[in-house]
């Protein structure tokens, strides 16, 4: 299992949360981008 570059933020349920800082929001967007790339490569490899 390869090491994940980004870990899912704790309690992250929505993309943008007013209670989260901009830093945390942008990190979450990065996390989701990585997740999408990962899923796309899994689909291609099937």
From TrEMBL:
**Highest taxon of the source?**
Eukaryota
Q: What is this protein called?
A: 1803_t:CDS:1
Q: Name the species this protein comes from.
A: Racocetra fulgida
